[in-house]
Amino acid sequence: MDSVRLVEMGPRDGLQNEPVQVPTHIKIELVERLADCGLTHIEAASFVSPKWVPQMADGSEVLTAIRRRQGVIYSALTPNVKGLEAALAAGADEVAVFTAASESFCRKNINCSVAQSLERFTPVLQLAHEHGLRVRGYVSTVLGCPYEGDITPAAVARVAGALYRLGCDEISLGDTIGTGTPKKAIAMLSAVRQEVPLARLAAHFHDTYGQALANLYAVLEQGLRIIDSSVAGLGGCPYAKGATGNVASEDVVYLLHGLGLETGVNLDRLVHTGRWISRRLGRVNGAKTGLAWHPN
Ligand code: HMG
Ligand code: MG
């Protein structure tokens, strides 16, 4: 049966913008519960400056303390060599570099131009590959930028292609502020796949305008098979005001199973995990399926 690989963002993208420090033991429990749901790829930490994103300062503790499930990839964001060294020491299985299709967003997010970011990533990729780690490359603002507005598909394809040629094993396409709509998503993907094979592309859609599931359906129809999502729709981006979380994992799994696409995820467990973390954070559950679900 046709299947989709889900990359779970809850512990990283989901928590990075929480205003109150989330206790480390809750982060650890979240990662463990997500793995118990059958998710095989969990972005568990972020090795960025603790001055920029204080919420993620305990990444090493999280990665070293989690009970690891065999077959699960626990990954982390690493914007530079310093971050990579910390990720290696903590035992990350995969790392990710991140840049943007928009110059303004790139500067706000990682304090350098897109060209400088690519230069910075060269030694990160080299060292990561020397250690046998896969490297993901994120392109933010692929369907719109909070500072520059519309972004052309050609601009996204340029940056995605550059990351791929640099050696990134997979490119994740981020609709950071969730302004995209299906036709735009298809146009963007059509341009990017001229530069990067479709099998290496992931959709990372935020749901700010309620379009994420529609956009995902559109790119699934184009043959894309890797999706980033966040349990209970947790999240937001510190450098994209008003942006809400990634599309909720529960809603994505419900959609995929309805389409006859396998995920390996136990939806009942995932719903319980989403309800649990929403309660712990005092947040309204952002997953529609999480609110509606009653086990048979
Ligand atoms: P900078 O200030 O230009 O870097 O920041 P620097 O090299 O000049 O270092 C400044 C200070 O940060 C120094 O400390 C460094 O040691 C420290 P000081 O001497 O002042 O005490 N530092 C670090 N500390 C820990 N780990 C590191 C690290 N690097 C430097 N790796 C930097 C550049 C990239 C570090 C900074 O801009 C940063 O941390 N930005 C954080 C950006 C971020 O985390 N954004 C959210 C994640 S991206 C996202 O959510 C989008 C995504 O989901 C896709 C989508 O939705 O579009 C992926
Ligand atoms: Mg994101």
Automatic annotation (TrEMBL):
Q: Record's CDD domains?
A: DRE_TIM_HMGL (cd07938)
- Keyword annotations from UniProtKB, A to Z: Lyase, Metal-binding
The record's listing under Pfam families reads: HMGL-like (PF00682)
> Amino-acid biosynthesis among the record's keywords?
no
List the Gene Ontology MF annotations in alphabetical order.
Answer: hydroxymethylglutaryl-CoA lyase activity; metal ion binding
Q: Does the keyword RNA-binding apply?
A: no
Q: Which family does it belong to?
A: Belongs to the HMG-CoA lyase family.
NCBIfam families registered for this protein in UniProt: PRK05692.1
Could you identify this protein by its name? hydroxymethylglutaryl-CoA lyase
Lineage, top ranks: Bacteria, Pseudomonadati, Pseudomonadota, Gammaproteobacteria, Aeromonadales
